[in-house]
Amino acid sequence: MKFPLLPALALSAVAAAAAPPGADTPTAPLRADHPFLGAWQLTRRDDDCAEIYRIDRSGHTLITSADEVAQSTFTMTDQPSARGYYKWVDTLVKDNGKKDCWGQITKPGKTTTRYVMINPAHDRFILCTAEDGRQCFGPFVRVEGGDI
Asked: Where does the record locate the signal sequence feature (predicted)?
């Protein structure tokens, strides 16, 4: 079924207007002062293996974890939700096929949706599977000078 262009545009405008700005709609590129930009490190307590995410404004991420080197593309909401979480939708586009800090090999094409809560100082965040805060891990700690 085909939809006339003007009603389809009107429907999309109504849908966009119904959502609070930045609450659920991921955006790209990120604004220059978005607190998620930069490099973040998660270190395993049991063996000190470090996983580092380098996040740039254009929606690209470079990840290093043990022997793994991967690249992803992402979108993220501009502002946190009422619960304080940014919605992060990430798709792995390239991976060297080696194991990460958890012994896993991730195949390109995998898309995940996670929820990020950044502390007020913007130097740590936790990563959750939902905005309820029940299944989270971290903290990821900001790494100075790790921008890409």
From this structure: 1-18
Strands 60-65 and 124-128: unpaired
The DSSP letter of residue 14 is: H
6-20, 25-39, 43-57: segment of lowest average pLDDT = 6-20
pTM of the model: 0.78
109 CB-side CA count, 13 A: 1
Closest CA to 61 of 52, 69, 71: 71
Helix (H) or strand (E) holding 124: strand 124-128
The predicted-structure confidence for 84-101, as pLDDT tens digits, reads as follows: 999 999 999 999 999 999
User: Please, what are the domains in the chain?
Assistant: 22-143 (2.40.128)
Burial of 37 per CB tally in 10 Å (0-12, 13-18, 19+)? buried
β-strand 50-55 against 111-118: which pairing, if any? unpaired
Q: Show Cβ contacts of residue 70 under 8 Å, excluding neighbours closer than 6 positions.
A: 62, 63, 64, 92, 94, 95, 96, 106
Q: Which two tokens stand for residue 12?
A: 């999309």
Give the C-alpha separation, 51 to 141, whole Å.
11
